[in-house]
Each structure stands twice: as C-alpha cells, then as structure tokens.
Design brief:
Elements (H helix, E strand, L loop, with lengths): L11 E5 L12 H10 L4 E4 L7 H10 L4 E7 L9 H9 L4 E3 L6 H6 L17 H11 L4 E3 L5 H13 L5 E4 L10 H8 L4 E6 L12 H11 L4 E4 L10 H14 L4 H17 L7
Parallel strand pairs: 1-2, 2-3, 3-4, 4-5, 5-6, 6-7, 7-8
Length: 284
C-alpha cells in the first residue's frame, strides 16, 4: 500500500470499520491503527453497526502510539435503538460521534426490502420523545451527531431540532448513497444552518454502494463548498482498498478534477479535526 502524499499528512478518517465485527473486516483494531500510523495519518474514528467502539478505541490508543484513535455509538437494535442511557454512557466514556440508526433504520430497511425498522418521527412528523432525549444529552457534550441511514425527511427534522438545542456538530452521513440521497439543493439548504457538514465517503464510489459517479460527489462539493465537506472512507471491507489507500485514491481523483492541494487538506484534515477537537464548532 502506498504511503500518503505530503498533502495528506495528518489526514483524519472519521468513518472506518475494523474487527471485532460480525462482518468480515480487513484489519482488526490494532492492525488498523498501526497501518494508519505507518502511513502518516493523524487520527481515525472506528465505527461498528453493532456496538460501541469507545472502549475499543481507548484500549487501542493505549497500545499504539503516534496516532489518535476514537470511537462512537450507532443507535441500532443491538444497543437498544434510541436508547438515551446508552448514549449517556458512551458520552461519559468519551464518544466522539453518535450515529442515528443505520441498518436498523426504517429507511434503510425499506430501501433493502426488509421489514421493521426504527423511525425517529411519530405519526405527526415530530421527533419521538426518545430522539428528543438523545438530542438533549448530546447538547450537553461536544460530540458529533450523525444522521446515519435516516431518510432525508427524518434528518431534516433532526437537524432543525438539533440546532434549536444548540448542537453545533451535525454530520450528514454519505449524502450521495442511494438510500440516504440528498439533492444538491437539499444540501445547500442544510449547509446554511452553520452547524452542518456532509460526510462524503469513498465507499459510495465502489460496487458495494452502487458505484456512485465521482462527478456527483465533485459537483456537490462545488455547490455546497469545501468548508462543509468531510472526506471519509467508510472502508475496512476485505473486498475494497485499505482505508489509507482509499484516502490516497480519493485525493488523487479530486486533484485530477481540479481541486487544489489546500482544498484536499481542508476536507481530509482541517474539517474533520474541527469536528473532533474544537469546542463550540459552528455558528448558530
């Protein structure tokens, strides 16, 4: 695997998968961290659809030096769904990101012809009390709130309510992927809030996610601005490139399309660092 180019020194991947997991993964947590450190990355955030990665990240950070490792919590059925107590525990343990449901989301299951699923909205289109309580908990922290695999309609309500509660870090998860697709106009409207970023994942361009054309991502960045874009990989699957290689390929493609070195650094280094480390990010 190639070493990252100089322009990506210190790159941060906010969305990467590793073992232990019920899904096959290319690396375990330790291998992932060591590889990220070897190629010169600054930080990674481990994601699992099944359980908290906060404790795993804490242990890895104690073992692997020269790289910062973080975790978070996805609110799927395996942790009780919209479970505010699980959120509070994760935040107390140092979670950097709380995702709304992904594979357990009603929208995800509808898109994959599956039954059941969690919606954050009631019959009137308002947030259910459990989702409201979760927003209240996140508002007391400096954690990132991510939309997961909610529908754009659900996410819009969520983002409005998050803004009212002073949550300053909202990350829209892979807005180019078909099940969670947002039109450019929808993205531009959300970008005006001042506390919303868009996580554009390399995996969306692969066969696993329908081979979204790079041009779709590039146009969305142009329309909404590099200042609202975070470039992550969502990699870790054995049949896709290693995460660090995904970052390199992503950067090369965007550079060939006219994005500057400074643009790439902002989207792969500066913006994710702001979400991870700055206090009071956003301008509400």
């Amino acid at each position: 695997m190639s070493i990252l180019p100089d322009c990506l020194e210190g790159a941060i991947d906010l969305h990467v998968h590793s073992a232990p997991d019920v899904d096959a993964r290319r690396f375990n947590d330790l291998e992932l961290a060591r590889e990220a450190q070897r190629v010169g990355m600054g930080a990674i955030l481990i994601k699992s659809h099944q359980n908290s990665t906060v404790e795993r990240a804490w242990l890895v950070a104690k073992v692997v030096s020269g790289i910062q490792v973080f975790g978070g919590l996805v609110l799927n059925d395996t942790v009780g769904g919209l479970n505010v107590e699980a959120v509070k525990l994760a935040l107390a343990m140092g979670a950097k990101e709380i995702w709304m449901p992904t594979r357990s989301a009603l929208n995800h299951r509808l898109q994959h012809d599956q039954s059941g699923g969690i919606s954050i909205l009631d019959a009137s289109g308002d947030l259910v009390p459990e989702a409201m309580a979760i927003l209240e908990a996140i508002a007391q922290s400096d954690c990132i709130l991510s939309t997961g695999h909610l529908s754009p309609r659900e996410s819009s309500v969520l983002i409005h309510q998050a803004r009212q509660r002073g949550i300053r870090k909202v990350l829209v998860t892979h807005p180019e992927w078909s099940p969670t697709f947002y039109s450019v106009e929808e993205q531009k409207n959300l970008a005006q809030f001042g506390n919303v970023w868009f996580e554009r994942c390399f995996v969306s361009t692969t066969h696993l996610c329908g081979c979204v054309p790079f041009q779709v991502i590039e146009q969305a960045i142009i329309e909404t601005g590099v200042e609202t874009t975070v470039l992550s990989t969502d990699l870790g699957q054995p049949q896709t490139p290693p995460p660090a290689e995904g970052l390199r390929l992503y950067a090369e493609r965007l550079r060939s399309s006219g994005f500057s070195r400074e643009h790439i650094r902002q989207m792969m280094c500066t913006n994710p660092a702001r979400l991870l480390f700055e206090k009071g990010t956003g301008q509400l």
